[in-house]
Amino acid sequence: MFGLGDKVVYPMHGAGVIETVEKKEILGEVKNYYVLKMPMGEMKLMIPVDNVNNMGLRNIIDKGMVEKVYDVLRQGAVLNNSNWNKRYRDNMGKMKTGDIFEVAQVVRDLTYRDREKGLSTGEKKMLVSARQMLVSEIALSTNKDGEGIQEYLDNIINEDALKQ
Predict the structure, then answer these.
(1) What is the pLDDT of residues 66-93, one digit of tens each?
(2) Cβ contacts of 41 within 8 Å, gap of 6 or more
(3) How many CA atoms lie within 13 A of 44 on its CB side?
(4) What domains sit in the chain, N to C, each tagged with a CATH number?
(5) What is the pLDDT of residues 100-140, one digit of tens each?
(6) What is the pTM (predicted TM-score) of this model?
């Protein structure tokens, strides 16, 4: 279980801090909910305590793992040449895992594809969401602000683009 102040990742939403545990009655059922404060966008989420394992809630990566995430971004992009719908489903599957390395792959590959061939509207939204998820976890892990992390990610990805 998780406690107050724990930094956690909620798949498809990104990283946040457990601010409180609240008891709420919804549809006649009283449950305890973790209230997550999300640093990106100042959003708050409520997650049923008894359902966190099914939802994939996990602790954020430690500071030492951040460089490994950057290494994923530095690797050559994998250009999936299937139609956009199949690519979208494949990338969505990666994002739903909540695994930061898979999310980094989505950011890397979609950024490269955007430069080379452009993205569908759905893929553009996915790229924005994946970047937000990545930035939120790295920012909480390193105790740095999100803007600085975004800038650093751009530098890594742009550096890689020059090599390809």
Answers:
(1) 999 999 999 988 777 778 888 899 999 9
(2) 132
(3) 9
(4) 7-59 (2.40.10.170), 63-163 (1.20.58.1290)
(5) 999 999 999 999 999 888 898 999 999 999 999 999 999 99
(6) 0.89
